[in-house]
Amino acid sequence: MNVLYLKNSGDPFRKGVKNKMITLRNVQATDLEQLLLIENEGFSKEEAATKEAFVERIQLIADTFIVAEKEGEILGFINGPIINQPYITDVLFEKINENPTRGGYQSILGLAVSKQARNLGIAKILIGKMEELVEENEREGITLTCKQELVSFYEKFGFVNHGMSESQHGGVCWYNMVKRNTLA
Fold first, then answer.
1. 51, 33 in Cβ contact below 8 A?
2. Has this prediction a pTM greater than 0.90?
3. Which CATH code is given to the segment(s) 2-180?
4. Which of 53, 85, 128, 159 has the fewest CB atoms in 10 Å of its CB?
5. Is residue 75 within 8 Å of residue 113, measured between CB atoms?
6. Mean pLDDT for back-to-back runs of 10 residues, the chain (184 residues)
7. Concatenated DSSP letters for the chain?
8. pLDDT at residue number 20
9. Cα gap 129→178, rounded to integer Å
10. How far is residue 71 from each of residues 17, 38, 39, 42, 116, measured CA to CA in Å?
11. Residue 45, Cα to own-chain centre: how many angstroms?
């Protein structure tokens, strides 16, 4: 479990979390309801993962399903299975497998932060944790898909835009974003 501290700024919500500990941990089955609320705040009905998909992810890939919490309240999460190719396919949104011990690409099927915790650096912290796991487990890199308006957001973290994805998930146009592990 990692413990991090948020810095304060002029934002009213941040005043409430000044020097409050943010904990990173692996997902637990008891997190399900909070996860679904956050997922549905961040994604349309067509894009959001279903309850069944979350249950499967909690059961099969808890090692790469990380939540950020403060005082028992989940602020955000990041999750995804290890895959053999650098791009996410729609099949992953339907069926996943347990993660191999080493190698492959860390996919990110979901990165979501609750509305009241946005713009506090939670996404950055979660991406950073995934980067640590990628290095520790000798993965080739991290891959995700995002909408066009988020391409520049992920580029700030070192992801490279590999163009439009073949994914049709949720009826949306997605972009392949890949960050290679420079230690692999």
1. no
2. no
3. 3.40.630.30
4. 85
5. yes
6. 48 44 96 97 90 96 97 96 93 86 95 96 97 96 96 97 90 93 76
7. -EEEEPPP-S-HHHHHTTT-EEEEEE--GGGHHHHHHHHHHHS-TTTSPPHHHHHHHHHH-GGGEEEEEETTEEEEEEE--EESSSS--GGGGT---PPPSS-SEEEESEEEE-GGGTTSSHHHHHHHHHHHHHHHTT-SEEEEEE-GGGHHHHHTTT-EEEEE-S--GGG---EEEEEE-TT-
8. 67
9. 16
10. 10, 17, 20, 22, 15
11. 18
- Encoding tokens for residue 158? 């070192």
Per-residue tokens: 145: 């898909």
Give the tokens for residue 75. 């602020």
Q: Which two tokens stand for residue 176?
A: 């392949």
Polymer length in residues for the chain? 184
